[in-house]
Amino acid sequence: MDQEAKDVLSRRLRRRRGMAGPVARIDLDALRHNLSRAREAAPGCRVMAVVKANAYGHGAVEAARALSEADALAVARVEEGVVLRRAGITSRIVVLEGPVAAAELPLALAGDLELVVHHASQIPWLAPALERASRGLRCWIKVDTGMNRLGFRPEEADAAATVLRAIPGVVLCGVMTHLASADLRDDPTTARQLGRFRPLAETLAPEQSLANSAGILGWPASHGDWVRPGIMLYGASPFADESADALGLRPVMTLRTRLIAVKSCRAGETVGYGGTWRCPEDMPIGVAAIGYGDGYPRHAAAGTPVLVTGQRAALAGRVSMDMITIDLRTVPGARTGDPVVLWGDGLPVEEVATAADTISYELFCRLTGRVKFRYEAARPSGAD
C-alpha cells in the first residue's frame, strides 16, 4: 500500500472513529438565551450564574466565558474558582461552600474569590490568612432557614455576622439561604423559609440572595437582590409538572451517538444481558455506541426514549458498558451509521430522566471523559 492510500485509509478511520462515539454538542447561544430568560423572570435583580460541578457537566470554562454578561459566577469549591481564574475568567466568583480547610484561604485570596461562610469552624481561618494578604476578602454569610444542610441557625447568625465584621480585611457583602422545596409550588416550606429569612437578612448584610432556578421561575417573593440560576441555564426545567419549553428555555446539551449495527431478530429471541427483553415479533434491533461507561444511566429501563434519524424509538434490554440496544420498529429504514440522540434537541432531558428514575442534573453531571464535547455558537465569546 503506497503512502497516498495509507493517508486515505487513515482519514477514513479517523472519520469513522469520530462518528461512532458519543458527542455532547453544547449550544452556547442557548446558554446565553437562558441567562436572558433568568433576567426576564427576575427583573431588577443581579444574576449569579451557577457553574459548579463543571457547569453541570457542560464545561465550566466554556460556560463561564459564554456567561460573561452575568453579574457574578458561583462555584461550589475553591478549586473550581481557581480553575476559572487560571483560564482567564475575570468575573466575580462566589464559592458557595466556602473554604473547607485553612489551606484554601491563600488560594481564595490570590484568586479574588468571594467566600460563603456557613459554619463557625471557618471563621478562625480568616484573620491569619488576611494578615499576610495584599487584598481584603469579600464574604457572604449563609443562614439555614429550614433545609438543614449548610448555614448558621437563625438565632446564631447575628453573632456570627458580628464576629465577621470585626475581622480586619473582611467585607461582609451579602447574606444568603437555599430553598429546599421551591420546585414544589404548593409546598408551604418555601413560604416558611422566606418568613424566617427576611427579617433576619435585613440586619445582617446589605445584599440578599435566596432564589435558585425554581425560586426565580416560581416564587417572585424570593428574588431579593441576587438570584442564582443553575439548572435553568442549561435548558432543563426545575419543575416536574412544567417543561423547559413551556418556561421559554432552550436545551444547551444535545447528546448524540450513532448506530454501529442493525440486526434482524426473530420473535421470541431475547436482547441484552440477562435476556430481560424479548422480541414480540420479527423486528430490527439497533446497537448504538454509548453505555454506562460514557455516563448513560445503566438503570434506564426498556422503553426509555431515543431519537434515531429524528424519529422516536426506545431502549430494548439492559444498558451495557459501551452500548445500548434499540427497538427499531418505529424506524424500519434505520441503517448502520445513522445518528441517535439520547437527549437534547427534539428529546427533552427531563423525559429521559423520568424514564431512568433520576433527574436531569444527574444525567448532565455523570458524563465521562469518553464523551467528546463540541462547543457551538453563532458569535464568539471572550474570556470575560
Write a concise keyword list for the protein shown above.
384 residues; alpha/beta; TIM Barrel; Lyase, Ornithine Decarboxylase, Chain A, domain 1; 2 domains; 8-stranded parallel β-sheet; 6-stranded antiparallel barrel; 12 helices; 22% strand
Give the radius of gyration.
24 Å
| Euclidean distance between termini CA atoms | 51 Å
Write out the CATH superfamily name of the largest domain: Alanine racemase
| The top level CATH class name of the largest domain | Alpha Beta
Tell me the strand order in the biggest sheet: 8-7-6-5-4-3-2-9
Topology pattern, helix = H, strand = E: HEHEHHEHEHEHEHEHEHEEEEEEEEEHHE
The domain count comes to 2
Helix content: 25-40%
Molecular shape: elongated
Number of helices: 12
Q: CATH topology of the largest domain, what is it called?
A: TIM Barrel
Average predicted local confidence, pLDDT: 94
Strand content: 15-25%
The major pleated sheet works out as:
8 strands, parallel
